[in-house]
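Hello, quick one for you while I still have it in my head. A protein chain has come my way and I'm curious about its shape. I'm sending you its amino acid sequence along with the backbone structure tokens. I'd be grateful if you could look everything over and explain what you see. Here's the protein in full, and shout if anything looks odd to you:
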Amino acid sequence: MIWNFTANPGYVFAILTTFCWTISALAFEIASKRVGSVAVNLLRLLIALALLGFITLHRTGHFIPPGVSDHQWRWLLLSGFVGFFVGDMALFRAYVLIGSRLTTLLMVLAAPFGAVCGYFMIGETLTPLKIIGMVIALGGVAWVCAERRENDATPHHHVLIGVMLGIIAAFGQGLGAVLTKIGTQGLNAFEVTQIRVLAGVAGFIIAIPMMRQTGNVIRATRNPRAMVFLTIGAIAGPVLGVSSYNYAITKIPVGIAGTLAAMVPVVIIPFVILVKKETVSIRAIVGAIVAVAGAVLLCI
């Protein structure tokens, strides 16, 4: 096992995915608290779209992926709308209300949500082991969320709203993954991500004027510190994180890569202690480990 880990770069890139997504979560939390979650959502998608477009241009000679069928466009745009627009709008607001540590823990629920959606939508099996994994993941998350934080000044109703938004975000990611699976056939993973990002950008471009957030988006581009963190998050998340994960699944089984990538709630704990000076209880650490253990069972 040790030899396989050191000899196969797939393991290294799967772990790199975890660190990329951890960095993006922390960066997006900082940026969202400075300029608002809506502005961060649109701007980071625009940055990711540009970078992914140049990757596609380098590979195919076209900025937009060529040869994509109507079936693929339909399902991938729907997936992008659900994941990058609806789900991430809830996700980034949760970052502001309850922080990146608890929000990434709630995102563990994307695995059981995805398993249930896969069962009803495309006939994927729910084995007893997967059901046990879902129960364990739900239990670990619920245990941490129910913890009373005596030194936390966050209003109770903000915590409640943040948790609900985190659950919505996890459902969006789980459902989006199933929709992506339906429309992915034969496409490069970068092309799939680019099409999904297009749907997210379109959703925010339509929604932002209706939400009267255009001024906030413009002001966000004039905030150098926020733009730095926003750019770091965009590169670490949609671009490098996805690239690392896509490479990992070509070298090692998807279940192993998914398990390693699901370690964000545990990996993020030392970051929030050292960088944010956040106090993390033993209960929070144990609950995060239990929740990730449930996700591991889902990936077996």
